[in-house]
Write a structure and sequence with these properties.
The chain is α/β, with parallel strands linked by helices and 408 residues long. The chain folds into two domains: 114 residues, Arc Repressor Mutant, subunit A, CATH 1.10.10; 272 residues, TPP-binding domain (Rossmann fold, 3-Layer(aba) Sandwich). 37% of the residues lie in helices and 18% in strands. The strands form four sheets. The protein has a six-stranded parallel sheet, with helices on both faces. Helix 1 packs across helix 15, helix 3 packs across helix 4 and helix 5 crosses helix 15. The protein is globular.
């Protein structure tokens, strides 16, 4: 019987990665393309194009590039695997130094004329998952399911360049004015903050609204939607994220349960009525440094009191949850129809375990299995399934390769 590291044991994994597309390989300071296992022997011309592009950005005054893998995907119309290799190749050439910020944002610090100090390979947080057995098991679970349940926490958005505010260090780096006051995330993300200082509270939420509008969902969202649409009973999304990225990717709004609400809807702070309304007409005022909302505050159109995002905050007794209750009812009705659901849980931690509790309920009540993707807390707690200690995008891309889904 083949041993754990013999080629035939993981042949399916490697074949799926390489099938129907070239594989990018880094050799020294150059990047080569292999096809069908044979190197061409010539440096990939794409690397030269990417070097020229990076230098143009630096010449135009851009010093720091956020989430460079996604930027390369869009600039050169590449898949994730090739873009990832290109990021490393540019770092080895000294075109930029890559890192992972305290607030969860990936970045590349551009060097003038390619004279920067070559960096180590891109951060561990974006490394492809090392546990190939786990990727194979996850792929098999998805292939055998009749329905896909997507359970997403804050870690799902990190690969889109969004911070997850894990600890005060990262939060205060993003909001220095709050750091100077010693205001923690749990303090500002509360109705009490709106009562005590609505301009400060709206300074924080206005910045977040602008960030979520401006950011683009990473490629993993598209893969999840594609897998779900192929299932007999389709998919349902359960997320604690308020960023609206599932809707932005084209997921059916009637198949999304936003358990903490949405920053893209507003309500009265009092509240004077159970009505919520869209924030589409609200111009987000972004000033992360001062964290202060200038001008007129957003107001309730019924009573004129200060408005607030329709988000379930800390110590929140005034949240209008009627919209979310309808979403939850649709989710319960849908779950009653499925027989072999697989829950893909992504980036859901233990500090606020709402998403993890939901995943457990689905597995226990509906005979499902769990794929838990979490770089720090991947254990499944005895539930049937598999845990993968990695972040969202590289894991979903690796699973997609095995399922035969293109990564571009």
């Amino acid at each position: 019987m083949p041993g754990r590291d013999t080629p035939c044991r993981h042949a399916a994994y490697h074949d799926a990665i390489a099938q129907n597309r070239a594989r990018t390989v880094i050799k020294g300071n150059s990047m080569h393309t292999e096809s069908s296992g044979a190197a061409t022997g010539a440096a990939d011309p794409l690397l030269a194009q990417a070097c020229a592009w990076a230098r143009q950005l630096r010449a135009a005054g851009e010093e720091v590039l956020l989430y460079p893998v996604s930027r390369l995907q869009r600039q050169f119309r590449l898949g994730y695997s090739r873009s990832f290799a290109l990021v490393e190749a540019l770092a080895r050439r000294g075109e930029w130094a890559v890192g992972y910020g305290d607030d969860g944002t990936r970045y590349a610090r551009l060097a003038a004329g390619g004279t920067g100090t070559p960096a180590a390979p891109y951060g561990d947080a974006l490394s492809p998952p090392a546990d190939r057995d786990a990727i194979e098991r996850a792929s098999a679970l998805i292939a055998g399911a009749d329905a896909l349940v997507i359970a997403a926490g804050a870690g799902m958005g990190v690969d889109s360049g969004l911070p997850d505010f894990r600890g005060n260090a990262g939060f205060w780096k993003a909001y220095p004015a709050l750091a100077a006051e010693g205001t923690a995330f749990m303090d500002i993300a509360s109705p009490a903050a709106f009562d005590a200082g609505p301009r400060r509270a709206w300074g924080f939420y206005g910045h977040r609204l602008g960030l979520y509008r401006r950011s683009l969902p990473h490629e993993g969202y598209r893969l999840l939607r594609q897998w779900g649409e192929a299932k007999r009973h389709g998919y349902f999304v359960f997320t604690s994220n308020v960023d609206g990225h599932f809707r932005k990717t084209g997921f059916d709004p009637l198949r999304i349960d936003e358990c903490h609400g949405s920053i893209h809807r507003l309500q009265c702070l009092l509240p004077c009525s159970p009505v919520t309304w869209t924030a589409a007409g609200l111009q987000a005022v972004e000033d992360g440094a001062r964290c202060e909302w200038p001008g007129s505050l957003p107001a309730c159109p019924r009573c004129g009191a200060v408005a607030r995002p329709n988000i379930l905050m800390f110590d929140d007794t005034g949240w209008i949850g009627a919209r979310r209750e309808l979403q939850a009812a649709r989710c319960r009705d849908w779950l009653g129809q499925v027989r072999r659901p697989v829950v893909i849980e992504i980036g859901a931690g233990l500090n606020i375990p709402t998403v993890r509790h939901f995943s457990r309920r689905v597995v226990m009540r509906h005979g499902g299995s769990l794929i838990r993707i979490n770089p720090r807390e991947p254990h499944t707690g005895g539930l049937p399934g598999v845990g993968i200690a990695a972040s969202a995008l590289p894991t979903l891309a690796a699973i997609g390769a095995l399922l035969g889904q293109p990564d571009a």
